[in-house]
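User: I'll paste a sequence; please echo it back and then give the predicted structure.

Assistant: Echoing your sequence first, then the prediction.
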Amino acid sequence: MNKMKGFTVLGITLAAISVLLYGGCKKSGVVSEGNNEGRRLYIYNWTYYCPDSIIEKFEKEFGVRVIYDEYASNEELYAKLQAGSTGYDIIFPSADYISIMKNQGMLAKIDKDKIPNLVNIDPKIKEKCLFDPDFDYHVPYYYGAAGIIVNTKNVPEFERSWSIFERGDLKNRMVMLDDMRQIMGAALIKLGYSGNSTNRDEISEAKDFIITKWKPNITKFDSEGFGKGYVIGDFWVVYGFYEAVLDEITDNESLLSNTEFFIPEEGAPAYLDGMCILRDAKNTDLAYQFINFIHRPDIYAEFTDYFGFPSTVNIPARELKAEESFVTEEDMLRTQLEYDVDDALDYYTDMWFNEIRIGS
């Protein structure tokens, strides 16, 4: 999903103001009809990140009413929780924020005996969860990544590599996400470093690489309009989330047939969103039932089919998927998960806003 990573005082302050003024975004049309008023489960999840059909099935099967609110960024989630008691039971933060919330005592410790479907989670995903390797404070929900989308009619020849953004012949026909960790992580990976480097020399080298090799050829950094820009032909090459582009071109068969998505051969930054139970949750038994329900193979297959995702986390669900995914599990496992970079984040922020993004 389109994540806005980063942990800055300014970002949290602005998000907090927004939350206090407007509250969370409520998802309409989810709660099914029936006598489920007595049992309620309060969920706070990313926008467009769980099909209504799955919520409705859970409500019917467990005789519960789900109250489902949505947020657009980790910062918004964190700010709302920091503002005071929310009443939510389950949240879906990304790996770096799971680390932050765990360290601040905001999350309940997971009773793994209450989630038998944990056995369905791919051990290769567990190996990537260095921030919480034993699933003590989270259960993986989805492991995903942005990638490169190419209009093959306008760009018939290209390498499946980050080097495509160094092509001067495509100048002003390319766009990249407006996301500090994604772009700087991509440059670090391209240069052969960890996408989570805390080495200031490596971060500075990645900054210089972006400024000299990529920025001259891209139109802008954009995390909101790249899908529409692609469909109207402004952009021929996009580094972004494929589902955002797919949503724009589904009814355009010609463009769809001339669109290719790939994870660069060097690798790419990835995100992992986990299901966490808040420390002050009131409906923990229902929370455990929901988490276990999500990892039932038929339900997880339905979730990934809805978005065209591969079943990166749940192994048995792969055999039950009805739809072809736009990227393989093998491609996804070549990516590098984003972690909290601790004190180095201030240096990333300085490089991004004061040097890379200046003038954009």
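Confidence is low (pLDDT under 50) at residues 2-36. The radius of gyration is 20 Å.
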